[in-house]
Automatic annotation (TrEMBL), chain A:
Annotated FAD-binding FR-type domain residues: 36-139
Source organism per UniProt: Lentzea albidocapillata subsp. violacea
Protein name: Ferredoxin-NADP reductase
Domain of life of the native organism: Bacteria
Coiled-coil features, chain-numbered ranges: none
Keyword Metal-binding carried by entry: yes
MF (Gene Ontology): 2 iron, 2 sulfur cluster binding; metal ion binding; oxidoreductase activity
TrEMBL record, chain B:
Taxonomic placement: Bacteria, Bacillati, Actinomycetota, Actinomycetes, Pseudonocardiales
Stretches of the chain forming a coiled coil according to its record: 8-35
Keywords: Coiled coil
Organism from which the protein derives: Lentzea albidocapillata subsp. violacea
Stated name of the protein: Linoleoyl-CoA desaturase
Cellular compartments per GO CC: membrane
Biological process per Gene Ontology, one example term: lipid biosynthetic process
Residue intervals of the Fatty acid desaturase domain: 74-333
GO MF entry, a single one: oxidoreductase activity, acting on paired donors, with oxidation of a pair of donors resulting in the reduction of molecular oxygen to two molecules of water
Entry-linked InterPro entries: FA_desaturase_dom, Fatty_acid_desaturase
Length: 355, 372
């Protein structure tokens, strides 16, 4: 018998001992980052970058498969006891000697996760991770001339690239409201001193917003450069139009941080993913009734919000708790779906249920 | 059971006001649910797992009497924690708000022969919705006993003290049979329904796993301590069964708890539903440790009012709920465990015989009938 087969037999025996739990339920108590566990990480340090941004140093679990500079990871963290998932760019280089990764987070107004990470995250906390993903990366064949066009926290994936590999001719045009709001300002100026980067730093509070018509003056050869742009939707929309207008669209790569815009209206279109049905629902009818009327097989129970016999994964959109008016939004993750009680929840804008 | 409706003095407006006050208590807890509560359930789960592993480890040497005693005691406590404070409450969805897939009513499985899925249906959907409604809530005597004057007497009930004792010793099997509705489903016409067969097969698989673990693998791993470990796991299951049966009997069977007629819940409002839960449940008084070991089902009244609030909050909720009982001049049924267990058993014995007096009616929403 091979050693792998032996191990698998031993594991089966262990499962018989630990039933109804799994051996991993016990191992997780002592070794949450071990090989074979769900992917997690441990926060090791939190470094302040600006007044409202911080870099989180994470020791990833043994299952971490590494990342490509520019990619992002999804992070699941418990905020006030509730697990919330968000995506953040990896800002550390791929070859960091100690195997740690970093993400850099800017606290946005009313952002539950970003404010928690920037202001309250403590070293030692175990968080949930997904493997790195994303297409906003440098090609293996490094381009000769590069332009990074960034604004605000849009600098984070680009910082991951700058730290990862030194390219011959790199220009960066970065906007932030004020000097003190520029994340990684010291690192950027170190790179400039090293002649690894030409930097155009714009402070929009005093200089005004970047007008792409002016780009020609700042970077005369912009159209020849392979360009990576990341920042607010306004900047990216303008960039896409500008590059297209000058016939350079294939040289522009963009990354959007899409905070899922939820229309918490009076009701909306409800999609039942598995059954493939879509119906209009008002904001007062429980989703359970909506589903049943559409002939969808809905699990149900007490119909008054106490037994949880009806909970269903919410894949996208938002629902309103008919008892409290509280809005629950779908999680921005393909694996971690919020479970909602369909008997006391109504559509709050378009939404999709896994039924 | 009383001839007079103990809620007859309340007007419909008062009942709805009571409902609003209870909603406010619920909202307060929900608004303050957070990190501390999450840390609490994770801690309890972690302690339970470590206690179970340690106890089972000690039992590998159960040939030595001190090891047998310590290991059996530890395993009994671990099994009680698994079923009561952890399993029962997670399966109620009390911790679903944490959105942790590992501590969620839809993913949790417990150390019990009834699969979580089936128990959730019979307990959460039927018992908690139709609490103490005769003919709707099968928890009233579990279909084998008569625990209310309004339930029809049958000669079979003469043996109910014995049935109840046997049920107490093998309570988890009793619950599995109850969740399968064996009494109804073993009938010739129903027994071969695929839906029932699938559920029975699931129970069979669960029983096999539980038996294999407790009575074969763990004793085998104990080598020369095979027999003593077998005795230990059997004892731990017995203690867990007797304990949980006692706690659960105290929830709805003691004297003073009201039952309701089927037609009294027609068109029931939220306030009336709350009132039924208040009058249909009984608490157990005692120390913090006692509350913990009952899975906070000692706060049965609060649990029935708010089945999905985290169990660690029932103690603070109880203070406010008790004040409402006083305000609305209602009887808050509570007492120490021995008293409540005795009261419940007394009823089991008493009602094994037919009623002495002619049948009297319980609370009815139709007040004229009561007054008449």
């Amino acid at each position: 018998m091979t050693s792998a087969a032996l191990r698998s037999r031993a594991w089966k025996l262990l499962e018989l001992v630990t039933t109804p739990l799994l051996p991993s339920d016990y191992l997780d108590l002592v070794s949450p980052l071990r090989a074979g566990a769900d992917l997690r990480g441990r926060i090791e340090a939190v470094h302040r970058e600006t007044a409202d941004a911080a870099t989180i140093v994470i020791k990833p679990g043994k299952g971490w498969r590494g990342h490509v500079a520019g990619q992002y990871i999804r992070v699941g963290i418990d905020v006030d006891g509730v697990r919330l998932w968000r995506a953040y760019s990896v800002t550390s280089p791929t070859n960091r000697a100690d195997g740690r990764i970093t993400i850099t987070v800017k606290a946005i107004p009313d952002g539950k996760v970003s404010n928690h990470l920037v202001r309250k995250a403590k070293p030692g906390t175990v968080i949930q991770l997904d493997q790195a993903t994303g297409e906003f990366v440098l090609p293996a064949a490094r381009p000769a001339k590069v332009l990074y066009l960034t604004a605000g926290s849009g600098i984070t994936p680009v910082m991951g690239m700058l730290r990862d590999s030194r390219l011959a001719d790199v220009v960066m045009v970065h906007s932030a409201p004020r000097k003190e709001d520029v994340i990684f300002r010291n690192d950027l100026h170190d790179l400039v001193a090293d002649k690894a980067l030409k930097l155009v730093e714009l402070h929009t509070d005093t200089d005004g917003m970047l007008d792409l018509a002016e780009l020609e003056k700042l970077v005369p050869d912009w159209a020849e450069r392979e360009t990576w742009a990341c920042g607010p939707a306004g900047l990216l929309d303008a960039a896409e139009a500008h590059w297209a207008e000058h016939g350079a669209a294939e040289r522009l790569h963009t990354e959007r941080f899409r905070p899922t815009v939820v229309v918490a209206g009076e009701g909306g279109e409800v999609t039942f993913g598995k059954t493939g049905k879509t119906v209009e629902a008002d904001g007062a009818t429980p989703l359970l009734n909506v589903g049943e009327e559409a002939g969808v097989l809905m699990p149900s129970g007490c119909r008054m919000g106490i037994c949880f016999g009806c909970v269903t994964p919410l894949k996208s959109g938002a629902v309103r708790d008919l008892r409290t008016g509280e809005i629950t939004e779908a999680e921005d993750s393909p694996t971690a779906h919020v479970l909602v009680q369909t008997c006391v929840s109504a559509a709050a804008g378009p939404c999709e249920l896994e039924r | 059971m009383t001839a007079i409706d103990p809620t007859a003095h309340l007007t419909d407006e008062q009942i709805e006001e009571l409902g609003r006050e209870l909603d406010a208590i619920r909202d307060e807890v929900i608004a303050s649910r957070g990190e501390k509560d999450a840390a609490y359930i994770r801690k309890v789960i972690s302690v339970q797992r470590k206690l179970e592993l340690t106890s089972r480890g000690i039992l590998l040497f159960s040939l030595f009497p001190p090891a047998w005693i310590i290991g059996t005691a530890g395993l009994s406590v671990a099994k009680i924690m698994d079923n009561m404070e952890i399993g029962h409450n997670i399966l109620h969805g009390q911790w679903d708000w944490m959105r942790d897939p590992k501590i969620h009513s839809t993913t949790w499985e417990w150390d019990h022969v009834s699969p979580a899925e089936q128990w959730k249906h019979s307990h959460n959907e039927l018992h908690h919705t139709y609490t103490n409604v005769i003919g709707k809530d099968n928890d009233l005597g579990y279909g084998i006993m008569r625990v209310d004057e309004d339930q029809k007497w049958h000669p079979m009930h003469l043996g109910q003290p014995l049935w109840n004792f046997i049920n107490a010793c093998f309570f988890e099997y009793g619950i599995a049979a109850y969740d399968l509705e064996l009494g109804k489903n073993l009938h010739k016409r129903r027994r071969n329904r695929p839906e029932f067969r699938a559920r029975a097969a699931a129970v069979g698989r669960k029983i096999r796993k539980q038996v294999l673990k407790d009575y074969i693998i763990h004793p085998l791993l104990s080598g020369p301590s095979f027999l003593t470990t077998l005795a230990a796991t059997f004892t731990a299951n017995l203690i867990r069964n007797l304990w949980s049966h006692s706690v659960i009997m105290c929830g709805h069977f003691p004297e003073g708890v009201q039952t309701f007629e089927r037609r009294s819940i027609k068109g029931e409002t939220r306030g009336q539903w709350y009132l039924r839960q208040m009058m249909g449940s009984a608490n157990i008084s005692g120390s913090k440790a006692m509350h913990f070991m009952t899975g906070n089902l000692s706060h049965q009244i609060e649990h029935h009012l708010f089945p999905d609030l985290p169990s660690n909050r029932y103690a603070e909720v109880a203070v406010k709920v008790k004040a409402l009982f006083e305000k609305y001049e209602l009887d808050y049924v509570t007492g120490p465990l021995p008293k409540q267990v005795f009261s419940a058993w007394h009823k089991v014995f008493r009602l094994s015989l037919p009623n002495r007096k002619p049948k009297v009616r319980t609370r009815d929403r139709d007040k004229e009938l009561v007054a008449a």
